Amino acid sequence: MVFESIATERGCRSYLVGCPDTSRAAVIDPEITQLDRYQALAARNGLSIRYAIDTHTHADHFSGTRELAHRLGVPVVMHRKSPAPFVDLRLDNGEMIVLGNLRLTAIHTPGHTGDSMCLLTEDRLFTGDTLLIGATGRTDLPGGDPEALHDSLFNGILKLDPALMVFPAHDYQGRDHSTIGVELATNPRLQNRDRQAFVDMMQRLNLTMPTHITEALRTNMTGGKAVAQLLSEAAAGVPFMSLAELKAQVDGGLTDMILLDVREREAYDAGHIPGARLLPRGQLELRVNQELPDSTKRILTYCELGRISTLAAATLKELGFQRVVALDGGMQAWQEAGYPVVGTGPGESS
Fold first, then answer.
1. How many distinct structural domains can be found in the chain?
2. CA torsion sign, 77 to 82 to 84 to 90?
3. Angle between helix 227-236 and helix 307-318 axes, rounded to 10 deg
4. How far apart are CA 168 and CA 55, in angstroms?
């Protein structure tokens, strides 16, 4: 087996597994920010990614299965109970994914979520959030069920070979893997096997909610895009201008460029870059023909931090403005650099 473990700074773990004889591979629990990395690792190992698999509906980060599948023209794989409408291949308990000589067998393990599954292959078990190193998946998020988790653990995967290696979807202490035997002996949440005691313990954990839970669940369950993904796609399609270059353009009188402030009126009046005109992002599509009649003009957009202006620049490009550029930074960075500001805000010059 060809095997790569990929960790991110948020504690997420995903895996590339493949058959060396046929060069067929799958990515398990891909994270949206690591897609180029998975493809690079596959290429380095001479593998062709054939499946993008999620072990469950993630609530604390943004899944990369749909985008990876779109890039490569491969199916998204999840358990049959996944609510996501974009899943191409739905597995029931005991069914397999075939990667040449390698088999990935699905084991339905509800508890963390209703669609949780583990994947068994050769000497290892990919446990998603069902079993973690020194812990288990939480059961207080949508779809969580501590009684179901107890059954999935004690009547399910913990009865497998104790030597079986455990590779979870998360680890926050930099650990690579464990084994079933080690977890049975040392995992604090597995020491009391009584069903009610386990349920009571899980209900008393009082864990903090994941930072992006609402957005993560929305995107992972529907296939919609996260804000960060929209920003990334917008940034990939437009050029940027540095603060120093814009300062030189302002000093030269902006003779060949329209400087567009896409913030709201209140922010603009409090302080803006000299020569800038106001066109709030929320009104852009409605007023673009009136405010920007010449699509051949060079246009630079800016906002407070550089995000909204990037989206505005991408929108203008889609509308046919081919010379649009976004500021690398924003009004905040402009002021921090000590560049001139026009307006009525405190400490601002005109």
1. 2
2. positive
3. 60
4. 10
- Same domain for 189 and 76, yes or no, is yes
Burial (Cβ within 10 Å: 0-12, 13-18, ≥19) of residue 348: middle
Report the DSSP pairing between strands 324-327 and 76-79: unpaired
260-264: which pairs have CB atoms within 8 A and are 24 or more residues apart? 260/299, 260/300, 260/301, 260/302, 260/312, 261/302, 261/303, 261/331, 262/301, 262/302, 262/303, 262/308, 262/309, 262/312, 263/303, 263/304, 263/308, 263/331
Domain carrying residue 274:
228-336
Could you tell me if residue 341 is inside a domain? no
Dig out the tokens for 305 from the structure.
């931090």
Residue 200, in any domain of the structure: yes
pLDDT tens sequence for the chain (350 residues): 999 999 987 789 999 999 999 999 999 999 999 999 999 999 999 999 999 999 999 888 889 999 999 999 999 999 999 999 999 999 999 999 999 999 999 999 999 999 999 999 999 999 999 999 999 999 998 889 999 999 999 999 999 999 999 999 999 888 889 999 999 999 999 998 999 999 999 999 988 777 777 777 778 778 777 777 888 888 889 999 999 999 999 999 998 899 999 999 999 999 999 999 999 999 999 999 999 999 999 999 999 999 999 999 999 999 999 999 999 999 999 999 999 999 865 444 43
Tell me, yes or no, whether 137 and 11 share the same domain: yes
Rounded to 10 degrees, the C-alpha dihedral 338/341/347/350 comes to: 130
82: in domain: yes
Tokens 């960790």 found at: 7
In 3D, which of 88, 81, 54 has the Cα closest to residue 216? 54
Helices (H) and strands (E) in the chain, counts: 12, 19
Using the 3D structure, point to which of 199, 225, 251 is the last residue of a domain: 225
